[in-house]
Each structure stands twice: as structure tokens, then as C-alpha cells.
Amino acid sequence: MVHICDWGRGRRGGSGRSRHAGVVGRVGFEKSGSGQTARKAGRLDIYTEYFGLTRRPFTLQPDPDFLFWSGQHKKAYAMLEYGVMTNAPITVITGEIGAGKTTLIRHLLRNLEDDITVGLISNAHGDRGELLQWVLMALGQHAPEDASYVSLFSRFQAHLIEEYNAGRRTILIFDEAQNLAENTLEELRMFSNINADEDELVQLILVGQPELREKLASPRLVQFAQRVSSDFHLSPMSKLAVREYIDFRMLTSGATRNVFTEDAAAAIHEATGGVPRLINQLCDYALLYAFGEGVYRVDRPMIEQVVEDRNVNGSFAPLKSSGRAPRQRGRFRP
Length: 334
Fold this sequence. Notes:
7-stranded mixed β-sheet, 2 domains, P-loop_NTPase, ExeA_AAA_ATPase_DNA-bind, Rossmann fold, AAA family ATPase, two-stranded antiparallel ribbon
């Protein structure tokens, strides 16, 4: 049985017991309830029916069903698998915001063997005692707030030994790990030293933004870096990969026609730098604009218009005009 506990977006209760942000069973993550799905149905049908789609193709929620295996994502996932299979003490995966790191982790969780217990920890913070509380709660263990560090560490070590004796391996995954302080990272290195005979009792997977890699290059973390035996930086997608990514998500959502033109895909790559989350935002708006104008094709002028209208926070790179006249608005201006 794969036990996966996600702690980090909830809050500790007074008892110190875990209130999980999301708990899953053997495979996959908890799905939205039927009530929530029903509430979203009207919004989802804004353009899905118009384009003959079964669902929105460019949502921002990480979804393994939409996992697109670009060359970069294949390499990153291979490193994750390699780290798990070889019992690597520490695995590090980095990438820009929205590069697809969380989706890869969710895919990994869906495909782990049944003899692995996973604690998924998001945005951990605090001193070393608080870190142990986060870890214990992520593993479903009681972590009294007034317990000493020695007591918490003893509970943690006893739990690892119990899992080991039961034939289960333990993996701790830290998401947004770039936020971990240097002394916290050094504490995690000490976790990786816990062993039984020649077997290490816990593996660590750190997932974060590029700042994590910069932090690990610090001279003060040399010993930590030496324990990293599997790592990969997830770079943005190429122009060709963006084209394939858009087509893949449209086909997965039931598309039967090619909606985005070649020049539109090139403009999307130019505006987003190949970052999946930005691609999703831009494509979602583009489909809404096309629906509003009563057309079934998204071309470069339309992408230029979306970027001009929606680039309030500077997320998209400015686009050079194609020189063609801007489109006239149809039924409404999104």
C-alpha cells in the first residue's frame, strides 16, 4: 500500500494531529466531489461545447492525465525514478514556476510500488523542531507541539524502523524546497544518515525553483550536496515542443480539428518562453477570445491581442506585431 499524506497547506490543530490538505489511497489524488463538478459545469461549457471538447484543455490545476512527455520531462522523470529505484539518499528536481514539477511528482506517486510510504510536505518552515513536526504529521504520526527535539527525533526514528521492519520504504518529498533555510537543509542531511545495518531508512526528494540549486551551491552545504546522487533541472520547452504540447492537450480534451495555427503556436512560445503554466493561461484565453468572435481558428494576430489585453502583470513577453489588422470583437470582449 502506498500511503501518501500531504501536509503544508493545512494548519496544525491544537492537539498536534495532522489535518491533511489531501489524503489519497493506493494511487492518484482525491478527485473533486460531484457537487463541485456540477458548480463548475456552467463555466466549463463557456467554450468547450463550441469547440466540441469534453473538458477544458488548458486548466492550471496539475493533472497527470495531461502529462506531456517533452524531452525535458522524460529526463526529469527518469531521474526521479532512478533516485527511487537506487535508494538515492537525496534527489533534487528544479525548474521555473509552472514548469511541470508538481505534475511529475503526482505521476510518480501514482506509479510507486506498494511497499513505499510517502510524506509530501509543502512549504515547510520553522526551526529544526518544527521541521520534525511537519515531517511526523506528513507521515500521519502524532507530533505534540510541546515535545522536545529529542523526543520528536526519537518518534521519527522509531517510525522509520517500524516501517523498515514491516518491509516498507519511506520517502519524504519536499515541495517548494527553495524556501528551506540552510540550517533546515543541513537537518535534512542528518535524516539521510539514519540507517539500519547497510540500508538507509529514509529517502529525500527536494522539488523547487532554481533558487534551490543556487542555495545548494553554498560552501556551507557542501556535505548536503555530496549526498545528492540524482538531480535534474527542468528547462522550458522548445518551440517544437510547445506546438506538440498544445496539440496533445487539445486532442486529450476531445478536439477533432486543429484550432491553433502554426504561427499562433510560435507566438505562444515567444510570449511564454516555453513555460507550461503560462502556455495554459494564454491558450485558455485564446480559446475564449475565439469563441467570443465566433471563429474556430486561433492565429497569431489573436495571440497578439490576448497578450496585449491580458499582460497586466507582465507574465507574457511582448510580441512583435505581425502587421495584420487587429481582429474585430464579436459577441463580447473577454
